Amino acid sequence: MKNDHAAAPENTAPRRNFYGRRQGRPLRENRKRLVEELLPRLAVRLDGVALDPATLFPGKTGVWMEIGFGGGEHMAAQAAAHPEIGYLGCEIFLNGIASALAHVDAGKLANLRIYPEDVRDLLDVLAPASLDRLFLLFPDPWPKARHAGRRFVNQKNLDRVAELLKPGAEFRIGSDDPTYVGWVMMHMSRRKDFAWTAERSGDWLNRPADWPASRYEQKAIKQGRKPHYFIYRRI
Q: Any idea which positions bind substrate (predicted)?
């Protein structure tokens, strides 16, 4: 019997505990085709050795990475606006990957690669000081206190982020969840290796001009939630 669900390319990294869905509703035929044909050409696979992401983008002037790109709207817009940059997007939810592939296909984007597995495996092998910008936009806030350990923003992950970002590189975080906003501010205020660039409230309550909106962000605004936009600079 034919399997109606497209599958992402296999990865050799061992699986960790992962909380969340890997796939939602069945993919439409055109999205299945993109997963089967385009994703293998863009997917980053790990072979257990250190990876300098610059090698994925010959001739580019820098590398930006997005953790959990959702439907890929922000990622595709940034890649299109900055063809001189190599853009590495990470997402494990297959429906989001398929949506992002549709954006890549429509925009004929040639400066974008995708890691379709648990981002922690990728973070483990990336070379130090190899990223020029990192995005963590509207991650799952895990609002219940007993689930706080599942939030990406924690001191262990932030230690690794600090290692991966070049001096002067930006770490951008977006959230519309009040609990997560407070969580980010608490954890980032403890860091001596990051400087918050905001000088006034408008700097983090209004989306910067060079920060393309995502579908999730627009949905949050329509539902009455207020997004916050944090930009931290690696010292």
A: 144, 176
Picking from 44, 35, 46, 42, the residue whose alpha carbon sits closest to that of residue 7 is: 35
Can you give the pTM of this predicted structure? 0.89
Cα→Cα distances 26→3, 31, 32, 40, Å: 10, 10, 9, 19
List the catalytic residue out of 121, 124, 140, 193: 140
Binding site listing for substrate: 144, 176
CA pair distance 80, 75, nearest whole angstrom: 9
- Which residues line the annotated binding site? 66, 91, 118, 140, 144, 176
Domains of the chain: 29-234 (3.40.50.150)
Residue 140 is among the residues annotated as catalytic for this protein: yes
Token pair in block for residue 135: 């995005």
β-strand partners of 136: 67, 173
In this structure, are strands 228-234 and 165-175 parallel, antiparallel, or unpaired?
Answer: antiparallel
pLDDT in tens, 143-200: 888 989 999 999 999 999 999 999 999 999 999 999 999 999 999 999 999 999 999 9
Residues 44-64: pLDDT tens digits?
A: 999 888 999 999 999 999 999
Average pLDDT across the chain, whole number:
91
